[in-house]
Design brief:
Length: 112
């Protein structure tokens, strides 16, 4: 898994988070999932931090910390849902400044 590499092991918070394992229902609606995790994998494989997320019909409007606005269809088996479940990301957005504990928390969340 790519994400684990990105976790700074020197952070105390990250170490603490590493020990905890969380479970999230696999078929939790994508909107609820994203709202909880506050992370968004972009199409180019970059993981962004979410500043705000709102629902608009069958879409969700996501504003990232790096000021990108993404409109994504709410779909249980959509690309983003799949990537989140598989924790797949090529790299983490530097502009979003996602704290390392948040990445660890996500990396330790099991979807089942
Ligand atoms: Zn970003």
């Amino acid at each position: 898994m790519v994400l684990k590499v990105a976790v700074k092991a020197d952070s105390e918070e990250a170490k603490k988070e590493k020990r905890k394992v969380r479970y999230v229902q696999k078929h939790r609606p994508i909107f609820k999932l994203v709202e909880k995790i506050k992370l968004w994998p972009s199409r180019s494989g970059i993981l962004h931090g979410i500043r705000s997320i709102t629902k608009d019909g069958n879409f969700m409007i996501i504003e990232t910390h790096c000021n990108k606005v993404i409109k994504a269809r709410i779909s249980k088996n959509g690309r983003a849902a799949r990537w989140l479940r598989n924790k797949w990301a090529e790299r983490i957005c530097k502009s979003c400044r996602i704290p390392s504990w948040k990445i660890s928390k996500f990396a330790n969340t099991l979807f089942k």
